[in-house]
Write a structure and sequence with these properties.
The complex is a heterodimer of chains A (about 200) and B (about 170). Chain A is mainly beta and about 200 residues long. Chain A is built from no helices and 12 strands. Chain B has an 8-stranded antiparallel beta sheet with strand order 2-13-4-9-10-11-6-7, with no helix packed on it. In chain B, strands 3-12-5-8 form a 4-stranded antiparallel beta sheet, with no helix packed on it. The chains are: A mainly beta (about 200), B mainly beta (about 170).
Chain lengths: ~200, ~170
């Protein structure tokens, strides 16, 4: 039950202030512009895909923070938007390193997926792979969509780090994101957390 | 379905004086992920940004990093069995400020090794690495309750700031 009325009867001090607000004297609550929308944790047996659907269009940007393992090491993780898996609307560019003498840079255009990483570590307990994926202006229907991803894994100096950008030549608002590993499955207890970032 | 607003500032430290060698945040709890943002003032000596979890100084850290400074100058490096992790190989120097952002996902999970994704940058070009991307792991399944960040063995310069944020998933 909410408080509906207060009385000064019984107050020993007379140095009180009268106000019509129960917030008087307290700092204003200012919620952040960053909200958790949904988290998917992969269940027993693993999964061949992870699917966020019915994504609300009420934010300006999206961020996905994931920690995953896969059924085999050294593969990649890709995504599609709005279940668009046909055609050639996707492209991606990257720079990456395995800690050796060389760095890897490249591109792939006219694809049916966006590749997010070529360094996925395999076992979740000993070589977990974090992803920080930003999808900008995802609900804007006047522009093609872009993303960037930072991810990698490290097993005592072996593994890799990569920075990938992706592009979808479509002006549709993004309402679905599906992840696909190159390995057979994303293993149990891998997690994908979707966040929305509000604009002013 | 939504869990509401998150990305909560936990603590901010502004360095004063000339005797602070590291910043430590203890009793970290209640979130899913951590983000640490460090704005490092110019340093007396060249130095990278390092970190420790739970005060551990054993040989349990390693890293892989990609760094560069333009003009075809880049480095791809790794190391194993380190006594601290590498948060960013973008190198501090005597004239330029650096910004380092560190992402620590699933920091309280007790079923997996922990890692830190780092990116760092210095706005002014020079002979040192100006940008860095780094993955650094800690071979422990312990929940992270303490996070320490430093500039190696260097004194942290006055007017540097460190802010720690917590993110909670739905």
């Amino acid at each position: 039950m909410g408080i509906t009325k207060m009385s000064k009867v019984g107050f020993k001090s007379t140095s009180y202030l009268k106000s019509d607000s129960f917030l008087v004297g307290n700092a204003a609550f200012s919620p952040t512009a960053y909200e958790s929308i949904q988290t998917i944790t992969v269940g027993s047996g693993g999964s061949a895909t992870v699917d966020f659907n019915s994504i609300p269009a009420t934010y300006t940007h999206l961020q996905i923070r994931a920690m995953i393992g896969t059924s085999s090491a050294g593969g990649n993780l890709s995504l599609t938007f709005n279940n668009n898996t046909t055609g050639t609307k996707y492209a991606y560019h990257y720079m990456a390193s395995n800690g050796g003498a060389s760095i890897f840079t490249g591109e792939s255009i006219n694809r049916n997926i966006i590749n997010l990483s070529d360094f996925v570590g395999g076992a979740l307990n000993s070589s977990p792979t974090p992803f920080i994926i930003d999808i900008l202006d995802y609900a804007n229907t006047n522009k093609y969509k872009t993303l960037r991803n930072l991810s990698g894994y490290d097993v005592n100096g072996a593994g890799g780090i990569g920075f990938f950008t992706g592009h979808w030549r479509d002006t549709s608002a993004i309402n679905q994101i599906i992840f696909y590993p190159s390995a057979a499955t994303i293993v149990e207890n891998s997690s994908f957390a979707l966040y929305g970032i509000k604009g002013a | 379905m939504t869990a509401g607003p998150t990305y909560t500032p936990i603590a901010t430290t502004t360095i004063s004086g000339s005797s602070t060698t590291e910043v430590t945040y203890n009793s970290i709890g209640g979130y899913t992920d951590l983000i640490c943002v460090m704005n490092l003032a110019p340093l007396a000596n060249v130095s990278a940004v390092r970190f420790k979890f739970n005060g551990d100084t054993g040989s349990n850290y390693s890293y892989i990093q990609l760094s560069g400074r333009g003009g075809g100058n880049y480095q791809s490096t790794h190391d194993s069995n380190q006594s601290s992790g590498l948060a960013s190989g973008a190198l501090a120097n005597t004239t330029d400020r650096l910004v380092h952002t560190m992402y620590i996902n699933n920091y309280a999970n007790t079923n997996m090794y922990k890692n830190l994704l780092g990116k760092g940058s210095r706005g002014v070009d020079g002979t040192l690495a100006a940008v860095s991307l780094c993955i650094s792991s800690w071979r422990s399944t312990a929940a992270i309750t303490s996070f320490t960040v430093n500039a190696g063995s260097e004194i942290l310069p006055a007017n540097s700031t460190v802010t720690l944020y917590g993110i909670l998933k739905a």
